[in-house]
What does this fold into?
Amino acid sequence: MPDAARSRSACARRTEGVTLDHAAGLYDWLAPLMTLGLEGRLHRRLIAGLRLDRPMAVLDIGCGTGSLTLDLHGAMPAGDGSRVLGIDAAEAMIAVAGRKVRGRAGLEFRAALAEELPCAPESFDRAASAFFFHHVHYRLKRRILEELWRVLRPGGRAAIIDVDTPYNAFGALCANAGRWLFRQDEIRENIDGLLRRALDESPFRGAWRIASRHSGYISLFELQKGPAPYGEDPRERPASRDATGGSG
Ligand SMILES: C[S@@+](CC[C@H](N)C(=O)[O-])C[C@H]1O[C@@H](n2cnc3c(N)ncnc32)[C@H](O)[C@@H]1O
It folds into this structure.
């Protein structure tokens, strides 16, 4: 077995996605550098759009060591029905995330594949993912968006932060540096707009928008499954593709 394959956990070996068992020990040190110190701000923007204003079931896909998962859990009022699940294919990442649970009720991490979510249909009110979709190739992106649609309740919302088409020279430099450094063709796909195309070819077609753009190459995508849920304003549903220009 090649070295790269040997360093992958059993769960990670079942996916064609780029998994990070080998980086688990260093990830929490490296992630803030790779997001240019913007991680907290990006999480806050994502969470604001999800409107976690009551206890809900929330899924974090490709959660890594769980930083977004923890922020999602912390943002929601505690109560019956409040549940946050983070999944990642890399068992070593999940082991690091699991150590952060420390008795927090309703927070769980599980090793699982995004393309085969171990979740019942319509079992989540909200879903999120940060910097995950540039780890999976186009066919998997589409498959995962179908899974996301399956597990979201009608009216449920999702938010994705990821590398997207660069809109200035700084963004093009950062995005392409990542692509060359990590030799990851999946990053090139995002730069070329294939995440947008996957959304357009998914059940979310016509029900997603770009809520904000950051650092010249990162976009916050907001998605909605069908009609607005009880208590939410239908006028705020994503109607068109691009809601904003760049923002920092
Ligand atoms: C760049 S990390 C992002 C982690 C975290 N969301 C964050 O923002 O720090 C991408 C993660 O996707 C995971 N991954 C790759 N393919 C996957 C798949 N098919 N299913 C679940 N996780 C996967 C990797 O193991 C890795 O932890």
Q: What stands out?
A: Residues 15, 17-20, 31, 62-64, 67-68, 88-90, 93, 113-115, 130-132, 135-136 surround S-adenosylmethionine (CB under 6 Å).
